[in-house]
Write a structure and sequence with these properties.
126 residues; alpha/beta; 2,3-Dihydroxybiphenyl 1,2-Dioxygenase, domain 1; 4-stranded mixed beta sheet
Length: 126
Amino acid sequence: MKLQTIHHVAIIVSDYKKAKEFYVNKLELPVVRENYRAEKNDWKLDLQLGDSELEIFGEENPPARVSRPEACGLRHLAFHVENMEEAVAWLKTKGIETEPIRVDDYTGKKMTFFQDPDGLPLELHE
């Protein structure tokens, strides 16, 4: 067996409407499918992200995300961009603030962080 690519990344959100507004309307990720799952009483939203998908699960009262200090598990979700300054300026037009742009010590590429409505760290990386 040989692993080839990431098929999808799944996140659980506390407010489905806010998350959908953020990921679909602000980040402009195209909707692949959206389903209400009555047996689980949640929403599942699949978004296109290049050759992969981002799955958003809207559940009632999920446990809070453990943040600082960092906890075991998903640390952040990183998106590749071609031009950091353009990407940061575009996010700003959507009302999304980012940390200052800095250079990754290991790759030498520009990077910055921002957050989704639940505080999940999201990274831009050139």
